[in-house]
Write the structure tokens for this entry.
Amino acid sequence: MSAFREAIRSGRLAPGTRLPASRVLAGDLGVGRSTVVRVYSELVNEGWLTALHGSGTEVSRRSVGVVGKRARTPVARPRFVHDLRPGWPDLSSFPREEWVRAVKRTVTNAPFEAFGYVDPHGRSELREVVAGYLARARGLHAHADNVVICSGAAEGLRLVAAVLVKVGVTKVAIEEFCLHTQRPALLKAGIEPVLLPVDGDGADLSALDEIPDLGAVLLTPSHQFPLGVALQSDRRAAVVDWARRRGTLVIEDDYDGEFRYDRSPVGALQGLDHDRVVYLGTASKSLAPGLRLGWLVVPDRLVGSIVAEKGWAEESVGFVSQLAMTDFVDSGAYDRHIRAMRTQYRRRREQLLEAISRHCPTTRVTGMAAGLHVVLEQPGRSEAELVQRAAREQLAIEPLELFRNPGCTSERQGVVVGFAAPSASGWSGALDALVRTLR
Amino acid sequence: MSAFREAIRSGRLAPGTRLPASRVLAGDLGVGRSTVVRVYSELVNEGWLTALHGSGTEVSRRSVGVVGKRARTPVARPRFVHDLRPGWPDLSSFPREEWVRAVKRTVTNAPFEAFGYVDPHGRSELREVVAGYLARARGLHAHADNVVICSGAAEGLRLVAAVLVKVGVTKVAIEEFCLHTQRPALLKAGIEPVLLPVDGDGADLSALDEIPDLGAVLLTPSHQFPLGVALQSDRRAAVVDWARRRGTLVIEDDYDGEFRYDRSPVGALQGLDHDRVVYLGTASKSLAPGLRLGWLVVPDRLVGSIVAEKGWAEESVGFVSQLAMTDFVDSGAYDRHIRAMRTQYRRRREQLLEAISRHCPTTRVTGMAAGLHVVLEQPGRSEAELVQRAAREQLAIEPLELFRNPGCTSERQGVVVGFAAPSASGWSGALDALVRTLR
């Protein structure tokens, strides 16, 4: 039957083609006539074939010029062989079998109601395991009621920005170098971004009190993106104090907080004051961006408005992913996966540092032993030159410029190199290409 | 190990509790010491336990007051026993096994890139099978490039409204009774909704040319929601002509177009002019709302702006659902499921008509032999009275009032009764409750 569908789809069986009588085809194929009758009738029902008045069957004319074509858009193929882009986890390590098992267990056992419209807050089972995970792994003061399930940190920030605008916020401070999605998210909501310098201790917060009408500050405290520094502890305390004093909010984007290699991860800022910090988390780095799964942890007073903002267009994460993730965390598979990846990424980071110190001793590596990327600088070579040299090696790395906000006065030059993106088998080739680029 | 986690989570093992030495516990449990050491060390890594300086292990103090609590929000329990709400398919008939098989096949075989960030356009495999399906089942002129995958018709309408606003549209005509999500979607985008009366031939389009600055019209042509009539063929042609003449758009919400019981489904309006009609489709009625899976089919010139509008916040449907749906359609399972449901819903609709004509002969049933609902009217009983009587039977039905737009001048009274929502085992009880309500 699928051979028939394929023949029609590919145009080998043209619309209007009269098919052999079921008796004739059955004889040709050596199958029972009833089989052919059943197949014809299914294909008629599906619209591939049309039963003619009188007798006979033909390929539907309705399909003309429509189903025969393949998509014109070519699949976007990367123009590089080696992928050291920051922000990408190792997709080849996705725990396929465990995920499929989690889907099977949960879809088989789900109550009927799970298949209905999805609560924009997120399923309570998932909110509960996420709260538990964040409490023990990231030090959050997180209750299931304060968790809102979303499709990733970008949606999370969109929701927070929309709610801030509704309470009259017009300005939010961001880091002078930051994730390239943050500034557009604020602008689109109608919020003016104000830049904070970033130094070796993270975002410089000394000017916060001098910015009039500042409603919130958006930070990556555990691992500044892209510069890779941690927000120093006095500054952590200071920004929370500022938010309390001014009745404002800190938005914490904890995009890769699980990955720290030289010590236990620093707990999330949210743990210092769950009433003044909105936390954005995601499974994009810890599992895979393709799942489109993330979470917000918000103060009690904001839960209702965040859920209302989200719920309105019913753009919730499907129940299958939510249930599978619940099972995945609850069974311990999520913790195991993160531990395994932490070991793998730590090893890669060490190999990268070693290769650079051996072969490219003039290269300066910055960023702490954490996350999925480092920043590299070479005296006498601009970042544009480094990216061009990488391109000749068919290697993808990204210039700091990509994450520099308009108005940023830092003269810092460098390239951001992710060590997580390659598959296990692609890693050593990518590292060699990087060494050739830097030599 | 999960017993430990549960004991900590439930508070039976309080934070700070010192655990027995691994050797002692191993003896007590009659397992090897290495097993206990491994379990302790995994739980330390996960953050449940803390290894003490010197020796010994205790329950983490970090978990205090956080992971011990269950969610405060009670699970929303319906206050009815019998569910005849419109718009809900039979969730108990969801093809769980086939869906799990589709997930397994596709996750196991997916290329690495599938686990990465999701193209806001939607995966090309899925766009292709959706285009093929819509062409043969709904008569669309649909190419994979024109399909945009989204999380349902509500998101689809939000995207279309946002794009219309960008090209200067300020007014869109809607039906005087309509899906209760449509009007807020337009208002939120900054579009003024203008009402069209609905009669036995669908939306009355005679005034279209007299509405100044009308940029589009939003219709449910195959099966008006909630009144259940089809847009008459002259009107179908007229509205497409109007859109061509005025350079405007028709937005077609085809929420349950697959379900027609007395004849083949009328093809979608989009088939008349794929350049002037934007089509909204969804798996919410044909499979389950919980999947959060839908599709738009848009004219060439709008594809770019719809994808840009969608892509910005990365709120795409996860790749697992997209691949599973691709497999589900491609294997013929989707067609089979829809055929099976069509048979079941047809039978239910007949049983409903028969029960009403036998037991409640004064009740008037309207709406054609299609979709998942009928409209019932009773002379001498207001719709509010009917809903109250239903509540006494613990039966959920919805008054027409719920779908009446402000400014609607129709004096039509009635209740909207869905016959798809109950499970197979709940159907006859629900029907009995309806008969008692109407008697």
